[in-house]
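Quick one - inputs below.
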Amino acid sequence: MQIFRDEVEKLLKKHVKDLSLLEVPPDRSLGDFAYPCFHLAKELKKSPVMIAQDLVKQIKPNKTIEKIVANGSYLNFFIDKSFKAKEVLSTIFKEKEKYGSQKNKQKIIVEYSQPNTHKEFHIGHLRNVCLGSTLINVLRYLGYQVIAANYIGDIGNHVAKSLWCLKKYHAKEKITTRKGEYLGKIYAEANKRIEDDPELKEEVDQIHKKLEDKEKEWYDLWKETREWSLADFNEIYKYLNAPFDICFYESEVEEEGKKISNLLLEKGIAIKDQGAILVDLDEYKLGKFLILKKDGTSLYSTKDLALAMRKFDEFNVDKSIYVVDARQKLYFQQLFKTLELMGFKKDMFHLAYEFVTLPEGAMASRKGNVVLFTSLRDEILVKVMEETRKRHQEWEEEKLDATVKAITLAAMKFEMVKYENTNVVVFDRDQALNLEGETGPYVQYAHARCCSILKKANMKTVSKVDFSLLKEDQESKILKLLATYENTLTETIKHYKPSLLARYALELAQALNEFYHYCKVVSEDKELMKARLLLIFCVKEVLASALQLLVIEPLEEM
Ligand code: ARG
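Output:
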């Protein structure tokens, strides 16, 4: 919190120059703030460790900073407990769901989800949606103006494959529901057929060409089937509560991309190599970037050149973020470098994440052994329904359904964001549901516990709280966490790591549970009870806020 920072800065001001280095240590037991002394070493001609030791002798604690400790090359500051309790709890009580939010002027476009039509929407796509929507929520909470964009792959070889197989082998079938999913199956079948008989590839290529030439028969089929996939996707987005402000399609940037590619050739930034157009990025150790095929047809890259520019031109953004699979890392480096060579030097970032697999093995939509988002969801819904029904036989069907849906989504979404972006997610159905594990439902449960305590206690007023009564370790731990909520959000954005927010929510839920087990809330001591109820109220507010940013519903009962 700013006020604590100000207090520490007041003490430090006379002794050091660069106050911006003051940081919140990741390990909260190391104090509320830490000041690194490395940069002073050169000027003072002393080791950072010695500098920290000298400084600790010179700076004296006061009413608000109760302790200062030299720890290696760092100077660690501890805020006075009762001062902290008062500031943190009154601020949360006052600001409620706005606690930790900020104001900001920057405008950012975040592109996420980007599935391909004619293919399946699997659990790898789910990870993308969860990372993207959390990032967007946190950015907005911190005051950024955000444009949530989708970019759907509705043209290309995968479409040709799918349509070829559909027409050749399934022309007579009647499909009525989940048509997009059906197309995805056809796509996988196409791959298998081509694998068994590579000569069939020739047929697919011909269809690809016909599609690019907009030959009526194929063009119409493309238009019709494209809608099948889009309808499925939209249903999923609605279910996941992941809205978009704008949806780009690969088909609409293709022409522009071809123009840009030719322009690059004219300007000498790109070269012709055996008929194809490419940008030689060898001197930047980025290899060769192919931007147009030798038959003049477009590539993935062709379209991205146009898309990148469109985002800045149309929306006048300061920054553009792409949430895309880590396998495209080199590709995006090449893309950004090419744009830079064109004179288009903008703030662009690729948030790369690893794939999702199940304990029983990996998946590839080409091979058709993917786990669809919808099938995994339906499987989990059944499990959650069974357990929730047992716990709440008195509930009406409507309430049961809504709660089951919220728990299912919490279980799935939390797994998708709780790991570092660079870690593979091995989605374990049972583990994701564990009410005692590091899961979404566990955090929801902590929130519901707060609600139930507050309801029972029926707290009416919170005036004249004696904050000094909150002195147990479990209480201090909670206070420390509450105080660093805003910092967690800032770090989440700074490092593009929704996992930081998920971990924070877990830690707060754990701290609440520890507190609940060691400290009696409802007690004879009315003053103590009042202070503890306020503490729980604040935990509830922050848990609800964090869950909402993670696009997870904070339940009051479960
Ligand atoms: N649709 C692509 C795929 O499934 C991802 C698109 C990512 N965004 C981009 N601007 N290239 O691989």
